[in-house]
UniProtKB/TrEMBL annotation:
It catalyses: a (3S)-3-hydroxyacyl-CoA = a (2E)-enoyl-CoA + H2O; a 4-saturated-(3S)-3-hydroxyacyl-CoA = a (3E)-enoyl-CoA + H2O. PANTHER family: ENOYL-COA HYDRATASE, MITOCHONDRIAL, ENOYL-COA HYDRATASE-RELATED. SUPFAM superfamilies: ClpP/crotonase. Keywords: Fatty acid metabolism, Isomerase, Lipid metabolism, Lyase. GO terms for molecular function: enoyl-CoA hydratase activity; isomerase activity. It is an enzyme of class 4 (lyase). This is enoyl-CoA hydratase. It comes from the Bacteria. Its EC number is 4.2.1.17. Could possibly oxidize fatty acids using specific components. It comes from Sandaracinobacteroides saxicola. Belongs to the enoyl-CoA hydratase/isomerase family. The keyword Phosphoprotein does not apply.
Length: 257
């Protein structure tokens, strides 16, 4: 499939999706929405692909939802049309994916990065929910995911003042997994994605599912859910292979079964 607002490449078992509207700092409009959903669905359906990276340019991961597209919309357009509802589809991706963030990740851009399984940030990354300055609020999950990631104090401050948070603060606060020099971001993200892609795919999918369950369940339910998935992996050929490979002191070779 050909895309106009994103670039999609496959690098071995890794799919890299690059937001590509440089003239608008990768602002997220409806075309980006449609294409991202299609690209993530295609990645999930492709048996040769094991992990994805979502990234932007060096200056901007994404500077938010497209303000020029939203500017003239009425309440009926937004509420009636359930504006940007479809973005949740990227969180339905069952295989792991990483956001590689350089430069601005603001508003919808920050919200999109937070939909990733984890974020690797360049040391030039700036995260923020500046919607309040436009007399609106986060609308793609920012008030919820940011609060869960960094706690009420910082999330509330960011949503109320619109201030940006740099990469070092974002790592200390728990928003990003790792900060790397901006010039090494793509190489580091690829290394991480290749490490994930090298794991037995059913185990990777299960690990993602159980960590995400921590946000939706009580502790007891979450632990039970984890245990059932853990038990279930003993029905996979790759569990037999993984443990035999350890005992025989050789690398495992996964069938994905
Ligand atoms: C549309 C945008 C844009 C955006 C930047 N551009 N952000 N266009 N929507 N969100 C455009 C500018 O209009 C400009 O185009 C070009 O990109 C370069 O931007 P500049 O402002 O000239 O760059 P700079 O001076 O370096 O400033 C960078 C910036 C600033 C600090 C990131 O662009 C900025 O504040 N952007 C808006 C950030 C924001 O408020 N995001 C939240 C949006 S609301 P032209 O053609 O004019 O030169 C949101 C809601 C989410 O995300 C919920 C959805 C449901």
């Amino acid at each position: 499939m050909s895309y106009e607002t994103i670039l999609v490449e496959t690098i071995g078992a890794v799919t890299r999706i690059t937001l590509n509207r440089p003239q608008a700092l990768n602002a997220l409009n409806s075309a980006v929405l449609r294409e991202l959903i299609a690209a993530f669905r295609a990645f999930d359906a492709d048996a040769t692909q094991r992990c994805a990276i979502l990234t932007g340019s060096e200056k901007a991961f994404a500077a938010g939802a497209d303000i020029k597209e939203m500017q003239g919309q009425s309440f009926a357009d937004m509420y009636g049309g359930n504006f940007f509802y479809g973005y949740e589809a990227v969180t339905a991706t069952r295989k792991p994916w990483i956001a590689a963030v350089s430069g601005f990740a603001l508003g919808g851009g920050c919200e999109l990065a937070m939909m990733a399984d984890f974020i690797i940030a360049g040391d030039n990354a700036k995260f923020g929910q500046p919607e309040i300055k436009l007399a609106v609020t986060p609308g793609m999950g920012g008030s919820q995911r940011l609060t869960r990631a960094i706690g009420k104090a910082k999330a509330m401050e960011m949503c109320l003042t619109g201030r940006m948070m740099g990469a070092v603060e974002a790592e200390a606060a728990g928003l990003v997994a790792r900060v790397v020099p901006a010039a090494e971001l793509q190489a580091e993200a690829l290394k991480s994605a290749e490490a994930v892609a090298a794991m037995a795919p059913l185990a990777a999918m299960a690990a993602k599912e159980m960590v995400n369950a921590a946000f939706e369940t009580t502790l007891a339910q979450g632990i039970n859910f984890e245990r059932r998935l853990f038990h279930g992996l003993f029905g996979s050929a790759d569990q037999k292979e993984g443990m035999a490979a350890f005992v025989e002191k050789r690398p495992g070779v996964w069938s994905g079964q």
